[in-house]
Amino acid sequence: MTMINGFTATDAERLSATERALIERRERTLGPAYRLFYEHPLHIVRGEGVWLYDADGKRYLDAYNNVASIGHCHPHVVNALHAQAQVLNTHTRYLHEGILDYAEKLLATFPPALNQVMFTCTGSEANDLALRIARQHTGGTGLIVTELAYHGVTEQIAAASPSLGAGVPLGDFVRTVRAPDAYRLGAENVARLFAEDVRAAIDDLRRCGIKPAALLLDGIFASDGVLADPAGFMQQAVALAREEGLLYIADEVQSGFARTGAHMWGFERHGLQPDIVTLGKPMGNGQPIAAAVVRAEVLEAFGRNARYFNTFGGNPVSCAAANAVLEVIQGEDLLSNCAAIGAYFKAGLQGLAERYPLIGDVRGAGLFVGVELVTDRVSKAPATEATRQVVNGLRERGVLISSAGPAANILKIRPQLIFQREHADLFIDTLDSVLRDLG
Ligand code: PMP
After folding, report:
1. Residue that terminates a domain, selected from 332, 352, 375
2. CA distances from 59 to 38, 42, 45, 56, 94 (A)
3. How remote is the CA of residue 152 from the centroid of ligand 1, in Å?
4. DSSP three-state, residue 415
5. In a domain, 368, yes or no
6. Element at 365 (helix H, strand E)
7. Which among 309, 332, 355 is the end of a domain?
8. Per the structure, how many domains does the chain have?
9. Residue 289: inside a domain, yes or no?
10. Atom of ligand 1 at shortest range from CA of 281
11. Is Transferase tagged as a keyword (predicted)?
12. What is the per-residue pLDDT across 387-404, written as a single tens digit (0 to 9) for each?
């Protein structure tokens, strides 16, 4: 059996003729940099609510997709897109109510000091813009991120995304700090160690003649392994960075829009007030819209020196979609649902942890959950191979998640905000059966 790029002989045997043809076409036309999920890749053709459907009509419970966060193809969003696309879709260099209505509604969800918003198409662009704004405001260039952070794909931001691995070198302007991992460092130590690491990073930048500009932190440390607790642990580090003249940029691409339950924004859980907040993924439920929300005084220098135009960012159709998303989050009270179902779901996972020693830790906030698998609870040695089997086993049984963390041994679970108890129960029962079969 020939090896299809990245697939072992056994994986390849499972592929249908259609799947094999699609993989070959992808590789021929999209080139070698793309990666597919799962050992047996999925051919998804339709989505509705919490479900994704493959080409054979088999349905999958989507517990991973943090883009269609209010449900796949939500009718309110689809209708808003359709209605606006029939009337006008231009850009931000004409007067238009759509962008302003949405911007005002969005800003109303932030602390009053975060009072201006600039639109982009992707989270990467939002982080890139945030970095440019921070550099203009501080006159510095240095950036501090966590050791396995992911912030995006532009050249500057990829150079500040250590999770991309050794093939994408960190920039000279970047310093990393340890992931604030309560499970491994101890909940009582996290705040202090995190602040100490930030202090060391600032000192090191200065020793190298680089003036620090900002501390850029993912509100749930998704790629570092889903690190949410203890709430408030970032305060010491952020206060210290501020005293040293750095800005605090909150990357809410993962943790924003009600994901962490009870709060609209991840930084609120930690009692923080960022200087810049970047948004993306769930903002348009699939329509490409992202943003940087900025304090007016922080934006002033950038606005004076630079002209900003983003051809597609904030166009009328994207703003209509994003507006509909906010209406659904607020109208269907998804904050409360996320908090309530998140707690119910986590309790179910903790029940499994009592029965399976493989589960070392269950953590997260709202409907962003991490389950760390270990070969032994004392040494906490990562169960990387078992994690791979669980992720693929769930996929075979119709439940979609992925993994994260330095050893890829943390189940990364992000169900839609519309999850109900029946969906949580189905997830728990399926995970139970996969773990049972693993032995
Ligand atoms: N920040 C974080 C925390 C992310 O997870 C991502 C995407 N995975 C980005 C930024 C980049 O967003 P995009 O893919 O829309 O450029």
Report:
1. 332
2. 16, 11, 10, 9, 44
3. 5
4. coil
5. yes
6. strand 359-365
7. 332
8. 2
9. yes
10. 15
11. yes
12. 999 999 999 999 999 999
